[in-house]
Write a structure and sequence with these properties.
3 strands, alpha+beta, about 80 residues, BON domain-containing protein, 3-stranded mixed sheet, single chain
Length: about 80
């Protein structure tokens, strides 16, 4: 896990959110997309506790604190 600042100055919010998730769970365990105040995270979620952790990780990124966070499980047929 990185020990430096969570978000380097000037980093695009989508990149910062993905970096935060990758630092926590490893590269590309979840895929984040940021658009218009909404953060969509796709991937597998073990349980409700893990979903809450993902939402907290996203909201810890500067600029995403008030974003709508949508979690889309891998098994979602609308993907």
């Amino acid at each position: 896990m990185r020990t430096g600042p969570a978000t380097p100055p000037g980093e695009y919010p989508g990149v910062a959110v993905q970096r935060q998730l990758d630092d926590y769970a490893g590269p590309r365990h979840w895929a984040a997309h940021v658009s218009g105040g909404r953060v969509t995270v796709r991937g597998s979620f073990a349980d409700e506790a893990e979903r809450r952790v993902v939402v907290a990780l996203v909201r810890a990124v500067p600029g995403a604190e008030s974003a709508e966070v949508v979690l889309v499980p891998d098994s979602d047929p609308t993907r």
